[in-house]
Design brief:
This protein is mainly beta. The chain has no helices and 13 strands. Helix content is about 0%, strand content about 40%. The strands form three sheets. The chain has a six-stranded mixed beta sheet with strand order 5-6-7-8-9-10, with no helix packed on it. Strands 1-2-3-4 form a four-stranded mixed beta sheet, with no helix packed on it. A three-stranded antiparallel beta sheet has the order 11-12-13, with no helix packed on it.
Length: about 200
């Protein structure tokens, strides 16, 4: 192996990088793949000072948050990394602007939050689609017929109640299978709202 050391000016030396005989590189650690970085390491791209909208970017492993992988940026044309842009946690959940509380979590402060699907096409059948899909199968790639009464999907509008408990339901649009599946799936659309006193009603 080829090993690189640095010194603090005293006699002691510390290993900073290792190139192994099988062409693997470790920075701050012994490599276990083509390139291995020590825990809490990051990769950073600096800003371009002459460009006002330029930002510094970083890909980081954050062991303080259970080893989350984060893409971060500076909030100004400097090299101060202070904004989490995307977080991928150990469960595969993704947060945009936050650490995720759900499988996909998008967060904004003091501004609207818009999720947009765009299609640019001259073909009339091309369109943006939001799809809610359910199967009674328990394996990925192995669909099984849904049955009468299955909730095929929901759209929720939630708020924070007077006790500051978040995600309290204000209104629901629910898609419920009505009958056995044939070539297509029979479905009812149910609208429910809350009076603010008890749960939501149809």
């Amino acid at each position: 192996d080829m090993v690189f050391y640095t010194t603090d000016g005293n006699a002691s030396q510390s290993e900073v990088m290792r190139l192994t005989a099988d062409n693997m590189v470790g920075i701050g650690c012994t490599p276990t793949s083509i390139l291995t970085l020590a825990a809490d390491s990051d990769i950073q791209w600096l800003t371009t000072p002459s460009e006002g909208d330029s930002r510094s970017w970083q890909i980081a492993h954050d062991s303080g948050e259970f080893g989350n992988l984060k893409i971060r940026s500076s909030n100004a044309n400097d090299n101060v990394i202070d904004t989490d842009v995307i977080t991928l946690d150990k469960s595969g959940d993704v947060g945009i602007g936050c650490s995720p509380l759900k499988e996909v979590d998008v967060y904004r402060v003091s501004e609207s939050c818009v999720i947009q699907a765009r299609v640019h096409s001259a073909t009339t059948s091309h369109k943006p689609i939001i799809q809610l899909a359910k199967s009674t199968g328990t394996s990925v790639g192995t669909p099984a017929a849904t049955v009468d009464g299955d909730i095929l999907g929901e759209i929720l509008a939630t708020g924070v109640n007077s006790s500051n408990v978040a995600n309290k339901t204000g209104a629901v649009i629910e898609f419920v299978q009505n009958g056995a599946a044939g070539a297509d799936v029979p479905c009812d659309i149910i609208f429910r709202t809350s009076s603010g006193a008890t749960g939501d009603t149809e």
